[in-house]
Amino acid sequence: MAVVSGKTKNGFTYEGDYQHANPDRVTWTATYRLGGHFYGMRHGRIDELKGIPVTDIDEAVKDDIESTWVKPS
């Protein structure tokens, strides 16, 4: 399992983790906060990661965590 954290474009901080579900897929879970207050959790998965360098997987997960939170419903 790997841990990631960051800040979304709309000002929320997040802490998350991800793990490999199989060789080309990761699943992730993230908790979002604003000003230290809990605002929600989301989870997701990213497919087709075969051949992607391990260093790029963190960035892909962070991008997916952000887009899941800030995209319009």
Describe the protein's architecture and organization.
With 73 residues, the chain is of the alpha+beta class. The chain has one domain (2-70). 23% of the residues lie in helices and 49% in strands. It contains 1 helix and 4 strands, in the order E-E-E-E-H. Strand 3 (25-34) and strand 4 (37-46) form a beta hairpin. The longest helix has 17 residues, at 54-70.
Radius of gyration: 12 Å
Contiguous helical run count:
1
The amount of helix comes to 10-25%
Strand order of the largest sheet: 1-2-3-4
Which features would summarize this protein structure in a list?
receptor, 73 residues, TonB-dependent receptor, 23% helix, 1 helix
Protein topology:
Elements: E1 2-7, E2 13-22, E3 25-34, E4 37-46, H1 54-70
Antiparallel strand pairs: 1-2, 2-3, 3-4
Protein name: TonB-dependent receptor
Keywords: Receptor
Organism: Dyella monticola
